[in-house]
Design a protein that fits this description.
The protein has three helices and five strands; from the N terminus they run E-E-E-E-H-H-H-E. By secondary structure, it is an alpha+beta fold. This is Lasso peptide biosynthesis PqqD family chaperone.
C-alpha cells in the first residue's frame, strides 16, 4: 500500500540513507540505504511487493528476507506514527 509521511515528519537524505524527524516528539529516525529504497518506492505509490522486488534486484538478497524486512519497516513506520496509508 502506498505511504505518505505524516504532516509533522521532515526528511533529509544523507550519504548513509535518510533521516526522519518527528517534529511532534522531537525524535529522529535513520533509514539505511535499504530502508531508504523501500520508503522511496512506497512514497512513489509502489506496493510492498514492488518494494520487495526492488530490494532483491538492488541488494541481491533472498525474496523471503526482503519481504520480512519490508513488512517490518512498514509496521515500524506506522506504529511510530511517521506515515499514513
Amino acid at each position: 500500500m502506498p505511504l505518505q509521511f505524516a504532516a509533522d515528519v521532515s526528511t533529509a537524505e544523507t550519504d548513509y540513507g535518510t533521516v526522519l524527524l518527528d517534529q511532534r516528539s522531537g525524535r529522529y529516525w535513520e533509514l539505511n540505504p535499504t530502508g531508504t529504497l523501500v520508503v522511496k518506492a512506497l512514497l512513489r505509490g509502489a506496493e510492498e511487493k514492488d518494494a520487495v522486488e526492488a530490494l532483491v534486484a538492488e541488494f541481491e538478497i533472498e525474496r523471503e528476507q526482503a519481504a520480512r524486512d519490508v513488512a517490518a519497516l512498514v509496521e515500524t513506520l506506522r506504529d511510530s506514527g511517521l506515515v499514513t496509508a
